[in-house]
Amino acid sequence: MSDPLLFHPHHYDPADLDETSRRLLRATVDWFETRGKRALVDSYNTHEWYADFLAFAAREGLFATFLTPSADGGDDKDKRWDTARNAALSEILGFYGLGYWYTWQVTVLGLGPVWQSGNAAARAHAADLLDQGHVMAFALSERSHGADIYATDMLLTPDGEGGFRATGGKYYIGNGNVAGLVSVFGRRADVEGPEGYVFFAADSRHPAYRLVRNVVNAQMYVSEFRLEDYPVRERDVLHTGPAAFDAALNTVNIGKFNLCTASIGICEHAMYEAVTHAHGRVLYGRRVTDFPHVRRELTDAYARLVAMKLFSDRAVDYFRSAGPDDRRYLLFNPMTKMKVTTEGEKVIDLLWDVIAAKGFEADTYFDKAAKDIRGLPKLEGTVHVNLALILKFMPNYLFRPQPHPAVPTRRDAADDEFLFRQGPARGLGAIRFHDWRAAYDAHAHLPNVARFREQADGLVALLAAHAPDETQQRDLDFLLTIGQLFALVVYGQLILEQAELTGLDAALRDEIFDLLVRDFSGYATELHGKAATTDEQAAWALAHVRRPVVDADRTARVWQRVVDLAGAYEMRQ
Hints:
- Pfam families: Acyl-CoA_dh_1.
- Belongs to the acyl-CoA dehydrogenase family.
- GO terms for molecular function: acyl-CoA dehydrogenase activity.
- InterPro entries: Acyl-CoA_Oxase/DH_mid-dom_sf, AcylCo_DH-like_C, AcylCo_DH/oxidase_C, AcylCoA_DH/oxidase_NM_dom_sf.
- The chain is of the alpha+beta class.
- Among the domains are: about 20-135, Butyryl-Coa Dehydrogenase, subunit A, domain 1 (Orthogonal Bundle); about 140-240, Beta Barrel (Butyryl-CoA Dehydrogenase, subunit A, domain 2); about 435-550, no CATH class.
- The protein has 21 helices and ten strands.
- Strands 1, 2, 3, 4, 5, 6, 7 and 8 form an eight-stranded mixed beta sheet that branches. The chain has a two-stranded antiparallel ribbon with strand order 9-10.
- Helix 5 (about 85-95) packs antiparallel against helix 6 and helix 5 (about 85-95) crosses helix 9 (about 260-280).
- The two termini are about 20 Å apart.
């Protein structure tokens, strides 16, 4: 039986997208399915570069169609930057393996500074490279500085002819071995401060571009490279000064979103495999899925995965409806990065507890999922960095709502061109949100939504009466726990909005909030134990630990959805 909430390769048809998008997404699924599981597993285990996938993508014009904005697409009316279909492709690629997703992801990042640039020649060159089937790279991080863009040792020296000579190294750069265009962040040797920043386009095939090595032990290529007196012509310069800094952050805003859908795809494939294995196995004379603890773990894993999809799908709408006067997506974006990807880790852990040693076997998809799911919370900023970012939105979100036009479901064939004119990467604390309580009020009849709403209202009361003092505001360890409590409120809001739009089964809605009640209680307990927590804050924490409302019939209905996954999908050998 096919679960309509989960991606299923044999029944996949994104009917809400246009015909060309549907054809390309279906062709991608068919390519992987025809290739088969043995090739998928063996190429991963032997660290084989995925040239066959890149050849397929080039032949189909997949990246060119999906990643060229309309303004740069010439007469091809199917080319556009469409977050809805990009998210769909990201989920599919994650379903088959992180490496396939990763080469797509770093191409997205590499194009970010280009499509934000006013350099017409560079834009035309990038569009042409995409048409030829090339992938791109984004060279921000360095071995000594990580992704600290305030400190870069990639130095550009003026050549006296309007260009520069670039010398320096970059580290942890995906696709750096083959990228037709590498967006490189550096600074002028003759200009101090932000005015000296430069983003420029390089070519990995140039003789002054020296590939050092692959820095990871994996199928994907994550390069270290050095430029040695690399000629940067005027037509290669994408951004200078503070605009280069903004381009770096805004590119990450665009690319960060894809991590949530990769995590979802990985979890979906792993869940099919795990449930099928567990349900077909008999231990001590009982089917494994008859054990109560197994049922709980698999039910929790399924509910967490559905919640991940609901939140991420709704966040797409906010991305696509964004504009200068509505930048709410800048909260929901780090939420997809921080919350959805860490939920993905929890899903895999729950499944792994059930299938145990099976999860280590080399001929399974699961052992790849168990390794790769760990990487997503650590890419494009750590969980801690994104939690700290989320905290910037908390005062306005909780205390100062303002009306906004309703955001519809966005699966129309439109170009999301605002993403490439986001403007200066500042002013996050001034962004205003609609009233988060409205989504909760609409579902107040569900027992666990109502119980979680009590906890959310309690967080507002805590911050009003016992807000972090000056010392606590400098204690990131303390603040991150507050951030986790706040993130749950935001997470629940978009889950409920999407559940309403899609008519999600009420039992599953309440089962998801059973989890959120437990999660809130866990973070409240954590807050209680922090050394920096005051007596008043500790008392609040204990007072807001709640048990979810138990309903055996509700849980049984959700369990039936889980057990129906047994044997529902198996990739052909």
